[in-house]
Amino acid sequence: MSKYVTGGVSQNRKGTWKVRHSTLSIEDSVVRQVKAGDEHIKYVDLPREMSREELPVYLLTLPEFSGNADYKAVLEATIVKQSKVVKAKVVKTKITSKPAATAAAQKAA
Fold first, then answer.
1. Could you tell me if residue 103 is inside a domain?
2. 13: Cβ–Cβ under 8 A, 6 or more apart, which residues?
3. CB 94: neighbour CB atoms within 10 A?
4. Within 10 A of 100 (CB to CB), how many other CB atoms are there?
5. What does DSSP assign to residue 53?
6. How many domains does the chain have?
7. Considering the domain boundaries, does residue 89 fall inside one?
8. 102 occurs within a structural domain
9. Does residue 38 lie within any of the structural domains?
């Protein structure tokens, strides 16, 4: 799991707001987003390395993010989306014998 040192939000070419996280400096992160065609780019240095899940929660505590309706909406939506993610393990089983009810039905037929 990566730990990020800068984070923020931006709006991509299609108009979609995104939470951004980076292991790069603010300057390098902004340059990367500008080259990608993003607008309304806002990054901050984080007080410590943070995970992807911690980042939007922290950014909402900052006035420059919580005071902007667009920034606040994307951060809150990201938090909700991350809280709904549940990793499930798929278990495959192979049945080698017929269930009793099926075997009895076949004998009767």
1. no
2. 36, 37, 38
3. 4
4. 8
5. T
6. 1
7. no
8. no
9. yes
Q: Given the structure tokens 């990608």, which residue do they identify? A: 36
For residue 31 the two structure tokens come to 């340059």
Query: In Å, what is the CA distance from 107 to each residue of 95, 97, 98, 101?
Result: 20, 15, 12, 10
Instruction: Please count the other Cβ atoms lying within 10 Å of the Cβ belonging to residue 49.
Output: 11
Beta strands in the chain (DSSP E): 4-11, 17-22, 39-50
Determine the length of the chain: 109
pLDDT by 10s per residue, the chain, length 109 = 679 999 999 999 999 999 999 999 999 999 999 999 999 999 999 999 999 999 999 999 999 999 999 999 999 999 999 887 555 556 665 656 665 665 555 666 5
- State which residues form the domain around 71: 4-84
